[in-house]
């Protein structure tokens, strides 16, 4: 997946279309990301659960599919696609392959 934790993304489809937020978590097995302030759902908690002082209703972010978000270009503050640039770099006498995420819109690195 091209989207990683702490990336700024914008929702491009669904009820929260147009909202921007930081990626809180990434689940690569199911190709879902959890975005701060997006896809908020109500969760009912029972009293006496470990880590919870009391029961009640809590509003939390639910994961959404990665195809419904686009990463935001830091230069233009607009959603953009991502390309991967592969470079050969010499370090300590050895050649290593370095992959860098690049914005399609502005050409800048992430």
From TrEMBL:
Q: Which GO terms describe its cellular component?
A: ribonucleoprotein complex; ribosome
Indicate the segments forming the KOW domain, all copies: 2-29
Molecular function (GO) terms for this protein are: rRNA binding; structural constituent of ribosome
Q: Which GO terms describe its biological process?
A: translation
Q: Which SMART domains match?
A: KOW
Pfam families for this protein: KOW (PF00467), ribosomal_L24 (PF17136)
Q: Does DNA-binding show up as a keyword for this record?
A: no
* Annotated keywords: Ribonucleoprotein, Ribosomal protein, RNA-binding, rRNA-binding
Its annotated function is as follows: One of two assembly initiator proteins, it binds directly to the 5'-end of the 23S rRNA, where it nucleates assembly of the 50S subunit. One of the proteins that surrounds the polypeptide exit tunnel on the outside of the subunit.
| Subunit comment | Part of the 50S ribosomal subunit.
Question: Know the name of this protein?
Answer: Large ribosomal subunit protein uL24
Annotated source species: Metallococcus carri
Gene behind this protein: rplX
């Amino acid at each position: 997946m091209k989207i990683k934790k702490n990336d700024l993304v914008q929702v491009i489809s669904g009820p929260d279309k147009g909202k921007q937020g930081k990626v809180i978590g990434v689940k690569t097995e199911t190709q879902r990301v959890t975005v701060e302030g997006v896809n908020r759902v109500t969760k009912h908690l029972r009293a006496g659960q470990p880590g919870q002082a009391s029961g009640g209703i809590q509003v939390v972010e639910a994961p959404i599919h990665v195809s419904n978000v686009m990463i935001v270009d830091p230069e233009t503050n607009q959603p953009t696609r991502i390309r991967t640039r592969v470079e050969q770099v010499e370090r300590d006498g050895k050649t290593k392959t370095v992959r860098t995420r690049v914005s399609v819109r502005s050409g800048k690195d992430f």
